Amino acid sequence: MKILAIAIKDLTRSFRSAFAIGMMVVAPLMLTGLIYFAFGSMSSGDVSMTAIKVGVVNADKLPDNSVLNVPIGDNIRSMFFDESVKSWIEASDYADEASVRAAVDKQEIGVAVIIPQNFTERYLSGKKDVQVLIVSDPTLSIGPAVVEDMVTMMVDGVAGGGIAIETIMERLQANGIQPNPTQIPSWIERYTNWYADFQRNLFHHPDKAVLVLVAPAADETKTANPLAQMMGLTMVGQMIFFAFFTGSNSMMSILREDEEGTLARLFTTPTNRTNILIGKFLAVFFTVFLQGMVLMAAGRFAFGIQWGQPASVALAFAAQMIAAVGLGVLLISFVKNTKQGGPVLGGGLTILGMLGGLFTANIPGGMPEAFNVIGNFIPQGWVLKGWRMALDGSAAGDLLIPFFITITMGIVMFAIGAMMFRKRYA
Amino acid sequence: MNAIEVKNLKKSFGDFQAVQDATFSANAGEVLSLLGPNGAGKSTTISMLSGLLTPTGGDASIMGHSVTKEPELAKASLGVVPQDIALYPDLSARENLVFWGKMYGLRGAALKSRVDEVLEIIGLTDRQKDHVGKFSGGMKRRVNIGAALLHKPDVIIMDEPTVGIDPQSRRHILDNVKELNRQGMTVLYTTHYMEEAAELSNHIAIMDKGRVIAYGSHDELIKMVGQETRIDVTLNAEAEKILDAWRATEGVARIDSLDGKITALVDDSNRVLPRLFDAASKHGVRITSVDIQEPNLETVFLHLTGRALRD
Lengths: 426, 311
Ligand SMILES: Nc1ncnc2c1ncn2[C@@H]1O[C@H](COP(=O)(O)OP(=O)(O)OP(=O)(O)O)[C@@H](O)[C@H]1O
Ligand SMILES: [Mg+2]
Known about the structure:
The structure holds 2 protein chains of 2 kinds.
Chain A: H1 2-16, H2 18-43, E1 52-58, H3 72-81, E2 89-93, H4 97-105, E3 111-115, H5 119-124, E4 133-136, H6 142-174, H7 184-203, H8 226-251, H9 253-260, H10 262-268, H11 273-303, H12 310-334, H13 338-355, H14 369-375, H15 379-391, H16 400-425
Parallel strand pairs in A: 1-2, 1-3
Antiparallel strand pairs in A: 3-4
Helix pairs in contact in A: 1-11, 2-8, 2-11, 3-6, 6-7, 6-13, 8-11, 8-12, 8-13, 8-15, 11-12, 12-15, 12-16, 15-16
Chain B: E1 2-13, E2 16-27, E3 31-35, H1 42-49, E4 57-62, E5 65-66, H2 71-76, E6 78-81, H3 93-103, H4 108-121, H5 137-146, E7 155-159, H6 167-182, E8 186-191, H7 194-200, E9 203-208, E10 211-216, H8 218-225, E11 229-235, H9 240-247, E12 252-258, E13 261-266, H10 269-282, E14 287-293, H11 297-305
Parallel strand pairs in B: 3-8, 3-9, 6-7, 7-8
Antiparallel strand pairs in B: 1-2, 1-4, 4-5, 9-10, 11-13, 11-14, 12-13
Helix pairs in contact in B: 3-4, 8-11
The complex binds adenosine-5'-triphosphate and magnesium ion (MG).
């Protein structure tokens, strides 16, 4: 009874939170919708897309005695000038904010990206009060969203890496190992470079970038509606990503309660601490369940997606829920507070999502072999495999292998996370 | 049986001893105040009583149930009002109370009617549907107290419930405490305001640096210090004119003059003051100011530690 009351209370709070709802259902539907409209208009005639004109102001400087070799601003700028995006992004440099804003006003460019002077310094010091500003022509819809996406992915990735390094350092120190601080700059450096390359390879390669997709050639389509099939994969990628995000984000409510003092208050009531944890786990599970149901229904009605045979869909969906809850519990069990939680979720889940192939699910020809291999070690990768099969119309029996592998991963992650939480709170 | 019994309670955080050998008790139906400056160890003591922290040593019991051996029974007899507001801001006042009631095992019609009662007690029946996040500080404090009353606990612990609020809400809360106590609840009240401790309590435990340095009723504590009322007087004339006459007055234990100000220690200012005025008239001296200082808990704390209660 008390377990259920705790779970219901958590659900009520989630559904009252604009952010949670946004991340649960609005964002995945909107992103899918964007691609749907971009793609839908392309397939109905005009296949060539006009390039997005981007103006970049990069005032970012390397702070004194910085651990980096180049300011983060340079990384952001170079994304837009990279050879690989030439076909669909036309970038030019501007000297200052005023001139680039004027260019937007005169519709000479569609989007302005303004990187402030002390961006690297403020960002690395953890003070996120300085931001990359994106100014766009209000008549455009897709261009600015794509540019924004590129910037956040880059920045989140760098932040995620920073936090990962911090956490590793703490763990090492907690275990009595003194890491050599002179190595840190090279770690950050290596990580940033790796991440920038990774971004470039994945997203900005002409035949891999989401927006330069062309309709699958007629001869390789099996189904009557190629658009619906492509949309199915797009939506699946988004749904999985946001299911994992939702799993972790709802698990974060335990950190929020810890900070709000209500967790301590719960512990003063005659309620078993293990039951309190179970109640919270249950809420995460319910949330991921409801989210999935809403997304599947919306996908069916808004984008005409045929999810597959009911039994196969049930298996794919169950695997997704268990893995999302498992990873959420595990991830959050490592996080100290909600402040740390945001970037860990943003950066960590984005990286896992990429490695699992979620953002490239809809690309014909798939991924380089290396990524398919990496995907085998990542729960998101296995959830995606299950959904691919369901969408292809496979029978439930064929899904058993990905199903069992995913739920095993999910259960192991859950068990470790739950154990850590018990140690911490119960 | 004592409602609260604390015996040699200890808590260390690493090498730091936050609570050292605390021993005190509260009879059923009384108000016991835990008085001490910031960092004295009051919240730590309370956290052990309410099952949040495990004691490093010693034990405590609530209504005869040991907090270490029968925590669930101890908790069921106890309502805790935490020092900081611990409520869900995105739930309404009523939803908060219903939830906390469920955590104390209430349900159904009993829960509903008890929530109605508590809303009445804290004076928020009209605002029950509003989200707590939109409430003023004083209103949040009242819901914070209400959430601890739902299961009609035998014992209620309040950790500095009046910190940082306006005088009116403070009055409301102090009156609430008295009313709850009148209805039979045992109250453990934590504060660093000596006036609150003096007004509310049957017994007071004074804490400092993790130790209970004094325990007793208000009067006992003050007697323990053994001070008499202090009267400061200034005159329109030389102190010498009257000092000898006053020194001979009945009830004056001691009298000194310094820089034109006369300080007397007397056993009962009500009896002694008129005599001082009489003597002054006879000697043609005018008293221009009188300041009476009854001994108080502040003086007791000063006497015990050499420091002021409030820094
Ligand atoms: N979890 C903890 N870890 C380490 N030290 C702690 C912890 N909790 C409390 N302390 C320390 O124990 C001492 C007593 O703290 P406590 O909160 O009990 O004081 P208090 O009397 O309630 O003070 P206040 O009036 O400020 O609320 C303080 O020095 C505090 O810093
Ligand atoms: Mg305190």
